[in-house]
């Protein structure tokens, strides 16, 4: 470790304790260099990669911030993150990755708890009320949502609490109570009620407005997300006549951006809340050539491939675990001309690429995007095309 790295380590007192980042001690240029190299090597058997897309201002990019609440040994209220794989709460005062306003709000809430006699939840005994605070910030709109995750449904003097919180942070546009009464490491529970504002925020991406509810997936780094989606659209190169499938569509972001340049878009997503948001988003943006289905993507593909319908371009953006054989098998049956694969985990990406390239697809283009600076995470977009045409033209040339 050189001097520079040692100095950088000291930037954060909980570096290596909290687990939120791994590369705070590495200069950003070096991080990008390493990630680009890693990605290039992973895709080597398939295609040359384009220039890795880094972030211009790589700090404070997380627009979704989650803090767990508890007490230290002396009984002081603390908030922060659980050390990876443990139940040890590491106090976080300030984080270089998290939106600064969100961190401010979390600090304010910590300061308000005592006067409102709100106890923090104790994981061991099950006593206490406040488990987590989740803050989501709309990058383009400035709207802010605060989700208070409680162990039971009643927040004492909730109106005064919201008033006191908004007095410090008038930018907060909505406050939601989420109830998580289970012994679980999941942050959010199933039940929630709105205590202030509409219960969601909105953000703008690639010219479209998106509704974000507490539980629906929305990328945490909006600046890089725009670059990611722009690449995905460039790779899809839609001409206006295509039938497009947006698989693992979340709140419908990719599909809605594609809809402008396609004949018809079908979105499929497992999460009910996300699908509700997606439907509302389509209405809000007056996109009428899109339909959403709430279903397991593989299950949907099976029905779709059996129905005899055709699809020209498939966008797929699965979770870290990647896609599954059911989905990929149907994809091979349907053989869309193009697949644009957006991935947040290069390992499962190459696994799935192997499956597809063994069965008639060719990887044409790929690029890595740094969605998570200072962490080891790599996001990527890859474009595959069905091999038929190439084989055919080769045949005819002979
Ligand atoms: N394309 C969206 C969301 C990508 S995240 C965006 O860019 O915002 C991956 C999404 O896959 C999540 O919304 C998750 O709920 C969904 N998902 C996970 N497993 C799924 C499955 N088996 N079938 C359909 N969707 C699934």
Q: Strand order of the main beta sheet, please?
A: 3-2-1-4-5-6-7
Through-space gap between termini:
59 Å
Low-confidence stretches: 389-398
**Coarse morphology:** globular
- Helix percentage range: 25-40%
**Mean of the pLDDT scores?**
94
Estimate what percentage of residues fall within beta strands. Answer: 15-25%
What would you call the structural class? alpha/beta
Q: Could you describe the largest sheet, including whether it forms a barrel?
A: 7 strands, mixed
Oligomer type: single chain
Number of DSSP strands? 16
SSE pattern, N- to C-terminal: HHEEEHEEHEEEEHEHEHEHEHEHEEH
Features:
disordered C terminus; binds S-adenosyl-L-homocysteine; about 400 residues; single chain; about 25% strand; alpha/beta; seven-stranded mixed β-sheet; 16 strands; globular; about 30% helix
